[in-house]
Write a structure and sequence with these properties.
Layout lengths: L2 H13 L5 H32 L4 H34 L12 H15 L9 H22 L10 H29 L6 H12 L8 H4 L4
Helix pairs in contact: 2-3, 3-4
């Protein structure tokens, strides 16, 4: 057996040992967070930066890799803090070894503050962190809205009324969301996230300006 094969066998005996599984799950979560963050951010940054940012190709590539690295690092850090905190709380509760009903909340609270809530030394919060938090917040609000009308858990106990609200709520939500963002963009554009503001400017403002057929059809003036 070669040295590499021997080392592989030793490592596999360690990672397959149930005794180490809770601790190794922290490392696995960090790995998965980094991989997922890179997969999600790289194509998004590639498209958005090359379409809407000015500068040389080298400058754009630096921005792409910086955004990808930040996203991957943030998810890896959060996943490791969350899993480690869950592991710690499991053995600190009234019933050691058993997950408490609020462990996930407190573990998420700590990870969210440490990774996404704190400002840099210059007092800034990265745009990548803001985008991730806004993404999560939007889905939390939708989940809570759905939960609120679920008869078994929410404030609406009548099944028929719950179904009616669930059916009619989305058109109202969609209309109010778009009405609100257009009003904000028109009168308070500085309050909108920069990526959204740039996209809306491209669609709704730059469409008002042209002086020949070329910059009417091919590109903006």
């Amino acid at each position: 057996m070669s040295g590499i094969e021997g080392l592989k066998k030793v490592l596999e005996s360690i990672i397959l040992n149930p005794r180490y599984a809770p601790f190794l799950a922290v490392l696995k979560a960090a790995r998965n967070g980094a991989v997922y963050g890179a997969k999600v951010r790289f194509p998004h940054a590639l498209v958005m930066i090359f379409l809407f940012r000015s500068g040389t190709v080298q400058e754009k590539m630096k921005l792409i890799f910086r955004a990808t690295r930040t996203h991957a690092q943030n998810l890896a850090k959060y996943a490791s803090i969350y899993k480690a905190t869950m592991l710690l709380l499991r053995y600190m509760g009234s019933e050691p070894g058993k997950e408490g009903p609020y462990d996930t909340f407190f573990a998420g609270l700590l990870g969210g503050y440490v990774v996404f809530g704190r400002r840099s030394k210059r007092g800034h919060i990265s745009s990548v962190s803001k985008q991730i938090v806004i993404f999560v917040f939007a889905r939390v609000v939708l989940s809570l809205a759905e939960l609120s009308i679920r008869p078994s858990a929410g404030i609406i106990r009548n099944n028929e009324l719950s179904k009616r609200i669930g059916h009619d709520a989305w058109p109202v939500f969609a209309a109010v969301s778009w009405a609100s963002v257009m009003w904000l963009f028109r009168w308070y554009p500085d309050t909108l996230q920069s990526g959204l503001r740039s996209s809306m400017d491209y669609i709704y403002v730059q469409s008002d300006h042209w002086d020949n057929l070329r910059n009417f059809l091919v590109y903006n003036k």
